[in-house]
Amino acid sequence: MIAKLVRLINRGDLPPRRAAGLLGRLPGYLFHRALGDGRSGRPFLITIELTYRCNLSCPYCYLAGLPPVEETVSEEEIDRLLADLPRPRPLVHLTGGEPFLRADLAAIVSRVRSRGCWTSVSTNGTLISSRAGDWLESGGPDRLTISLNGPEEIHDAVTSRPGAFAEAMAGIDRLGSWGMLNRVAVNCLLHPRNLPILSEFAVRLGRMGITRVSFQHPMGPQLRSRPGEGGIGPGSAMDPGRVNGALDSLRRVAGEKRIKVRFIPELTPGEIARWYSEGYSRPCRYPYFALRIDPRGRIYPCPGFPAPFGDIRLQALGGIWNGPAYRRFRRGLDTLPRPAACRNCCKI
Ligand code: SF4
Ligand code: SF4
């Protein structure tokens, strides 16, 4: 947790005062950790999946094949959840699917921010229309992370959607014209198609004024997607040696050009070798400080576990967060063998 907060501050993602407030919760975490009772202090990160719909259909999408899910979590329910939490309130990450498909996104962001939560939104960037300018400029999120997997030819091929890159770039241009580029980050999923061009892509983004760029290793479900259909599973040329070589030259060029890049997760060359061969996991504290809420308002301990521990429409978070299911789950992280869901998880 401390390492994650320090990384957020170093990248300029989190104002130091807010980070200091969250660090003040550390004794609570350490106390329960020492007791081994599976309890935890209040969460400092809440990820809310506002929808599972998306206007793209990337072949490696971890949502691919899921049945439609009702979007019943409302602005009011999110507000109630946050209002019940003590200050300093947690960071809130709004994601999807594609959050800009929710007609009430502006209202949700505004409510979350008005509760004093540092707020980020992840998007594919294709729906940032001129109409979004008013709310984005006046009360938009603190961070807007746009998924871009390379220059035009590669991004369109990787997302299986001709025009996706141009649409996202038009969105970034609009954000620039609204003076918001300092709030924009780009996330690039590592893919066989983009490994050879990572450095030049990072340089290009830097020239556009985008100073926060992350490169994400494909997660477990993505590493099972079918290469023949554009996925990045076994046989898709995500060879560990090739990945390590590409990241070496990316780090070198980023250092020379003073571009800040980060990797999700941060892995050593040896860990990368295992990530792309037999699969890799390491001790995880995520469910001690973070949680996930799906579009129906159901609460999960992390992205890898499909069984909900509660529902924000029916219960207060306090009762769920340190309830029997959560406590059992956290204790199991320390005492039971790592489950398959933990292999190649980006939250480690
Ligand atoms: S943009 Fe994201 S949510 Fe949409 S299909 Fe692609 S990976 Fe899935
Ligand atoms: S799936 Fe496993 S590694 Fe990933 S956040 Fe959950 S407990 Fe941690």
Task: Put the structure in a nutshell.
Helix content is about 40%, strand content about 15%. The relative contact order is 0.13. β1, α4 (about 75-85) and β2 (about 90-95) form a beta-alpha-beta unit.
Structure description:
With 348 residues, the protein is an alpha/beta fold. Helices cover 38% and strands 13% of the residues. The protein has a ten-stranded mixed beta sheet. Helix 6 links the parallel strand 3 and strand 4 (143-147). The chain starts with a helix and ends in a 13-residue tail after the last helix. One iron/sulfur cluster (SF4) binds at residues 54, 56-58, 61, 63, 96-98, 124, 147, 159.
Beta-strand portion reads 5-15%
Classification by helices and strands: alpha/beta
Q: What would you report as the Rg, rounded to the nearest angstrom? A: 20 Å
The coarse overall form would be globular
Share in helix: 25-40%
Strands of the widest sheet, in order across it, are 7-6-5-4-3-2-1-8-9-10
What does the largest sheet look like?
10 strands, mixed
Bound compounds, each kind once, are: iron/sulfur cluster
Helical segment tally?
A: 14
State the main characteristics.
348 residues, 10-stranded mixed beta sheet, 14 helices, 13% strand, binds iron/sulfur cluster
Produce the secondary structure layout:
Layout: H1 2-10, H2 16-23, H3 26-35, E1 45-49, H4 75-83, E2 91-95, H5 105-114, E3 119-123, H6 133-139, E4 143-147, H7 152-159, H8 164-177, E5 184-189, H9 198-207, E6 212-216, H10 240-257, E7 260-264, H11 269-275, H12 286-289, E8 290-293, E9 298-300, E10 310-311, H13 317-321, H14 324-335
Parallel strand pairs: 1-2, 1-8, 2-3, 3-4, 4-5, 5-6, 6-7
Antiparallel strand pairs: 8-9, 9-10
The structure holds iron/sulfur cluster (2 copies).
One iron/sulfur cluster is lined by residues 54, 56-58, 61, 63, 96-98, 124, 147, 159.
